[in-house]
């Protein structure tokens, strides 16, 4: 059995689970939200980790996880505490205890299983850190300011004569926050940075966005003709924009793989921009990124590729290249040398 940690309604998890079934293996999507419906989890130690089991609901079947050899941490949801627990401090304590059990369970499984995107690697892939590593492996990165200081933000905008984009560092659970071009009316809201910092980047002008999805050693990239978009900067807001498969080659491909290795990740979506001179610029990476819309628009077999990687791991056909983050991070330090940035291949 292959385990996918994600909300049960997550379409990406369900799509990959379908592909796993087509390859003759069983996939089990497990959501920590099931705690509110009676989920039971146990870890048993007897000189070694002897048993890891989950019972999704009271009187439901028990899933023994000790023999699991492949896990995809797609999008683990926070523990959902039963509504019968009313006191806020009691709810906080219960959530804290559950989080410790679930994180420990997940990380313990990773000792013997191939884990796609371990928890510690996902937490390391925060935007300030990934931007620092992207520069170190040689990728072009737009001039960037991450700040809670309204005056620093104002100086950055003025230095770039307003040719700036701004975006959030994280995604709220209750709203979609897109990347936006700076407008002079935004100046009146800069004081809100004291409440929540934000990212400001120099605008990279060019006709094409590139959305790359990395699965193991494979790069599935799509060129999105944003010059034809009706939605401004964020290509996710206009799915009618012409989108075609795109090949990332040479130095940029090697640098993207070096970034993934340094972060300890097996899967991620990466946003890049092609400027007017044909150069590729790294914008950001998301270890939980969406890829189904790219698969639908281009026919790229992303879900099938991820399913095949997990199935190969379950069958013992994958070596220990994805067993956790730290070894990968340590091993890649020596390879973070700079290299010449290659121009983007013409389409």
Number of strands: 16
What CATH architecture of the largest domain would you give? Answer: 2-Layer Sandwich
Give the proportion of residues in helices: 25-40%
Query: If strands are numbered along the chain, what order do they take across the biggest sheet?
Result: 14-13-12-15-16
Total DSSP helices? 9
What's the CATH H-level superfamily name of the largest domain?
ATP-grasp fold, B domain
Q: Report the sheet with the most strands, covering strand number, pairing sense and barrel closure.
A: 5 strands, antiparallel
Strand content: 15-25%
Helix-strand string = EHEEEEEHEHHEHEEEEEEHEEHHH
Class by alpha and beta content: alpha+beta
Identify the overall geometry.
Answer: globular
- The overall average pLDDT, rounded, is 84
Low-confidence stretches: 319-347
What count of domains describes the coordinates? 3
How is the secondary structure organized here?
Elements: E1 2-5, H1 11-22, E2 27-30, E3 40-45, E4 49-55, E5 62-64, E6 70-73, H2 88-109, E7 114-116, H3 119-124, H4 127-136, E8 144-147, H5 150-159, E9 164-167, E10 180-181, E11 198-202, E12 208-215, E13 218-224, E14 243-246, H6 250-263, E15 267-274, E16 280-286, H7 292-298, H8 302-314, H9 326-332
Parallel strand pairs: 1-2, 1-6, 6-7
Antiparallel strand pairs: 3-4, 4-5, 8-11, 9-10, 9-11, 12-13, 12-15, 13-14, 15-16
Helix pairs in contact: 1-8, 6-9
């Amino acid at each position: 059995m292959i385990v996918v940690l994600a909300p049960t309604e997550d379409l990406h998890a369900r799509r990959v689970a379908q592909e796993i079934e087509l390859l003759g293996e069983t996939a089990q999507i497990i959501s920590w939200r099931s705690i509110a419906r009676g989920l039971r989890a146990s870890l048993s130690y007897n000189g070694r980790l002897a048993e890891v089991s989950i019972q999704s609901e009271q009187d439901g079947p028990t899933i023994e996880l000790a023999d699991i050899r492949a896990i995809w941490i797609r999008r683990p949801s926070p523990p959902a505490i039963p509504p019968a627990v009313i006191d806020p401090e009691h709810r906080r304590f219960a959530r804290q205890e559950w989080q410790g059990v679930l994180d420990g369970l997940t990380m313990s499984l990773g000792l013997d299983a191939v884990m796609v995107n371990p928890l510690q690697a996902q937490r390391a892939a925060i935007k300030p850190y990934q931007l620092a590593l992207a520069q170190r492996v040689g990728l072009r990165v737009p001039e960037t300011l991450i700040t809670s200081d309204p005056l620093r933000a104002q100086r950055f905008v003025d230095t770039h004569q307003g040719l700036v984009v701004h975006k959030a560092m994280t995604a709220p659970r209750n709203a979609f926050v897109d990347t936006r071009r700076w407008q002079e009316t935004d100046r009146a809201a800069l004081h809100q940075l004291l409440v929540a910092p934000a990212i400001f980047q120099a605008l990279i002008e060019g006709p094409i966005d590139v959305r790359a999805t990395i699965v193991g050693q494979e790069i599935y990239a799509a060129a999105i003709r944003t010059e034809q978009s009706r939605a401004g900067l964020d290509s996710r807001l206009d799915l009618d924009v012409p989108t075609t498969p795109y090949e990332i080659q040479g130095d940029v491909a090697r640098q993207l793989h070096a970034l993934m290795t340094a972060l300890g990740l097996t899967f991620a979506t990466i946003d890049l921009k092609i400027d007017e001179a044909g150069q590729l610029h790294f914008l950001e990476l998301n270890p939980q990124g969406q890829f189904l819309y790219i698969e639908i628009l281009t026919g790229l077999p992303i879900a099938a590729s991820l399913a095949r990687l997990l199935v190969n791991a379950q069958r013992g056909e994958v070596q220990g290249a994805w067993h956790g983050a730290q070894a990968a991070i340590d091993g890649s330090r020596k390879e973070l040398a700079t290299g010449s940035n290659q121009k983007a291949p013409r389409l």
